[in-house]
Specification:
The protein is an alpha+beta fold. The protein has one helix and nine strands.
């Protein structure tokens, strides 16, 4: 009987520990990605300039720049396709990143920026941009 009671207590502790660990992992704060629409900044025949700023919100309500860190540029060719990392760019001291993204001759490509989780912040994804020629 003692073994049954101990087994039940240990099982209850394991279940509550797993639930609390899963809840905290999904509730990390996100960084703020502010991007300019690339469709308005065409730099060559099929190239567009993507520029954005990444900041980290702080507990006191202020924001700090995401300085000198990596930003992934992701692309996918269709709605059902998976996102693929095409480029990795770094932010400057002010948290600004710049890169060129391209439009295909036929079809459409979807682009987005992403910052991986680190320093107590969760994965953060930017807006999705679709580029194509009419």
């Amino acid at each position: 009987m003692l073994r049954t009671v101990l087994a039940a207590i240990v099982a209850a502790l394991l279940v509550t520990g797993a639930l609390s660990a899963g809840a905290s992992a999904g509730s990390l704060p996100k960084r703020i990605i502010d991007e300019n629409p690339p469709g308005q900044h065409q730099v060559s025949y099929n190239a567009f300039k993507l520029k954005g700023t990444i900041t980290e919100p702080q507990a006191d309500g202020t924001t700090l720049p995401y300085a000198n860190q990596k930003v992934k540029i992701l692309k996918k060719a269709c709605g059902g396709c998976k996102w693929k990392t095409v480029k990795k760019v770094k932010t400057n001291d002010s948290g600004v990143f710049k890169t060129r993204i391209y439009a295909p001759e036929r079809g459409r490509w979807k682009w987005r920026s992403k910052v991986d989780h680190s320093n107590g912040f969760g994965n953060t994804k930017g807006q999705i941009w679709t580029l194509y020629f009419r």
